[in-house]
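Hi R.,

Here's the chain you asked about this morning:
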Amino acid sequence: MGRRFASMLVCVLVLTATLSVSVLAADTGYYRRVISKTTHSRIEGYITLPTAANLAGIDVVDTEAAYNYFGLSPNDGSTWPEFGLFTAPYDSVKGYYVEGVGNWMVFWNAGTPDGWHTHHWPTKASSPAGSTGPNGGIPGGTRVYMKLSVPTNGTVVFYVSYTYNGVSNSMTQSFLASTYTGLSGVSATGYKNKVKRLTTLVVTHGGSYSKLNTWSGVSVGTAAGVHEFTTFCAESYTNYPSSSYIQVAPGYVLWSSETCSIVVP
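And here is the predicted structure, written out as tokens:
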């Protein structure tokens, strides 16, 4: 993710309506989204996850969740496979499915054959000591590195790593366009490809928030290399459903580093 740090942006989203959607739909609900221009098929950087104290209103099992994630479009923005982290209420029936609000796990949605999918990582057994999820999860407040890339045409690699209590943990997952329908057209050179990053809150009622989602050192590029994610390589940004309540400091746009809070009164 470029591993270069720049001045921090602080944005606070204060939204007044509620949405009812499935927890499986990450690119819905309330969100802060930045999309790159075309010719980008790689995005990497750090996300410091909110602690449990900075999450509220994520209560309904299989319906409400918070996300921080990357997207990669193989067709100039027509479709968006997604890869990242989520936190949601623990489901005592499914058990492994979600890990409890405040603990974060890997998910992806790359199309058929498995659609939206949680990787069940890190599990309790693979987590460093201190994980508080029923089955594991990355504790809130942890600084996590994510990298989504296309090293060769037709192959997507998603890498996640973090250190907790002095112990490092990482995972790598590869996806072939020949297997996953949503990845047809992914290109090592970025031809007709775009990337994006999002912070999302999917809730059905007021009194909800996801605060202090802190992105840093975010870079974009191709298999040949990356550069800082700035306005020069960004196509658009969206604060949904409204930008009326967004505060940004220090007053200029720098997509490589910002702290986002989403508040639904």
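One quick note: The domain at 9-264 is CATH 2.60.120.1270 (Jelly Rolls).

Cheers,
M.
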